[in-house]
Structures are given as C-alpha cells and as structure tokens.
Amino acid sequence: MKGLRENAYKMQFNGGNAPLGYKIVDKHYEIDEAEAVIVRKIFTMASEGYSYNDIIHELNRCGYKTKTGKPFGKNSLYEILKNPRYKGTYIFNRRAKRTSKNTRNNHKYKPEEEQIIIEDGVPAIVSKELWEKANAARKYMAKTSTNARHKYLLSGLLYCGECGGKMHGNYRIRDSHNYTTYRCNKQATRLDCKSREIRAEPLESFVINALCEHFFDPENIDIITDELNRKLRVEMDADREEIKAAHYSIAGLKTARNNLVDAIAEHGFSSILSKKLKDIEEQIERYEKMISDDEGKTGGVRITREEVVQRIEKLRECMKNPDNIDQTKILLHQYIDRIEINNTKIKVVFKTTFSVFIDDIEYVASYGFEAETTRRDMLARWDVKER
Length: 387
Fold this sequence. Notes:
It contains 13 helices and eleven strands. By secondary structure, the chain is α+β, with helices and mostly antiparallel strands. Helix 2 (33-47) packs across helix 5.
C-alpha cells in the first residue's frame, strides 16, 4: 500500500484496467483518441437529458464497445459518468473496502480524507463544465417522478432582480383556481425582499419563444457560426504563446539577417559573418516550420454551420414533444445562462457552448444574446394580471 500511495502522489497508474478513453504510457495516463470519442458522446448525451437506454441504443447503433469489447450497459455508463478522471482529476483509494463476506458495493466510496485526489493530475477527456452538467442531469433524471403534479421548467435559472437571491417554483390555490408561480427564496422565507411572484406559464412561454425565435431563425445561423469561430480563434490563440513568440522571433531574426547582409556588402565576406548568417537562417527556418505545423493543426479547425444546425435541430425536436418536459428542462439549461426578474422587467441571458479538441487540449467557444420584456407586456399577452 505504501508503494501504491507513492505512485499515486506521482500521478502514476496503479494497476488494473485503464478506463475507457485512456492508455497507459510509461506508467502515466494518456488519452486514447479512438476511445475518447465514445466517452465524449456519452457525456454530451447525458448532459442533454438522454436516458441510459437512449445512450446505450445510440452507442450500439454506432458499433461502440466497452474497454473489454462488450456492449454497453447501465452499469458501465454509470461508472463512466461518475469517474472524475474524465475531467482531469487523478484519484486513488476511492472504492470502499470489501465486507467480511468478501463482497463490495462498487457504488460506495471511502470518505474523501482517505482518498488521494489531485486536480488536473490526468489529461481531461471532457471539460469540467460538461462533466458537471452530465452528472447534474443524471441526478435530476434519477429523482424525477413521471407522475409528479408540478414541474418547473426554469427552476435553477431564475434570480431575483430586487435582492439578487434565487427564485423557486410555487403552487397556488386561489379563488378555486390552481396555478403555479416563481417567487424569490428570501421573500418566501424571511419576507425581507419586496419582489412580487410571477406566473410560471407566461414566463416559461416568453423564454421559450425568445429562444426559438432567435436560434430557429435561418438568418441567424451564419451569424452564430461566425461568432463562435471568432471566439474559438481567440481562445486558441491565447493558448499558443509559443507561436506568438515564434512570429516575434522571426521578425527580429530577419532584421538581424538584413544587417549582416549589409555588413558583408560593406566590409566584404568573412567566415565569422558567414557562420552567423547561416545560424540565423537555420533559426528562421526552424520557427517557420513550427508556425507551419501549427497552422496545419489549427488552420482548418472551425465549428461548421452543419454542427450548429445539428445542435439547434436537437433542441427543436425536443420542443416539439410536449411530453418530454424533463429533457426540455435539461436542454434549456444548455441554452440559458440566467434569468433576472424584478418588479418591472425580465431579462434572459441565452448562451450555447461548443468544444473543439486539438492535441488533447479542449478549446471552448460560447455564443450568447439577451432578450428583455416588461412584466406588464408579458402578462398582457396571456390576459392575466399581477396577483
């Protein structure tokens, strides 16, 4: 155990089978890109609210297998989604000990203080954000009852514009009428916030209509694609300081080369000047090759219009099915950053995020826009009044 713990502090592989998506090279985890594609698909589908059965069906349709070459099952998906290695966390001594009957519950873990946990200790296959979204969606789907009387599409996204607190769904019975609202947590518990409740149906309708009008408008597809690629390029350039340095170095070396050429023309040829000129030419060639190789990797990397359309079509199909409220709620969390409500206005901040992997590095680009309305205008469309 002492040797295993020493290995763990060095972030080395400690035996057994490498998780799907990884291979072991010189005792360390490296990404196996052929398998990592499967892992990313699992996390992406889970984050979008697909059930285990839906994910399994899609993996089988694509012909994907587990690390041992078997078809995927619910247990294998559970283990993948709960594995923090996929977001870059090295972890050792996680499983609970065997019982006196030599059995073990693979879903039971030791307390964190008994584990060795090192953030960014292994190369991440998915982003921390995607890992958290997938697991939040999994927990939500697990606890959701199909016969629940009230479901609030926007819960977890609403913030009170009067005090900054969160808002929650609320069921009302008044004058023999049943209806649902959203109300500020502070106003509900301590009555120290003056915000008014807001009817759920008109608010949910406004948010969904604003989202659909923007993202489903064909004229906006090119705008969204261009903005995503602009931000992707900024993200990629910011992480490639060595390429920037190479450009600056080439500029300085070319100036030095020109000066040497002028010196040779003025004072005549010498072996010392010739050697210096040759060294500079070799450095320029080396830096130009570095830039060329980088452009070969990143120059053609972009988010395509088809990818944007595919993402939006997935949302459209979900919106068409009124019975699919659970997946709709999860998808809304993919497209809404936050909703701020005060006693006069409503502001919705929409967003969508795309990821691109280059040399096992994830680059993320987001597109967002805002929609605003007044409470009065929103409620007037539904012919309802503030209570």
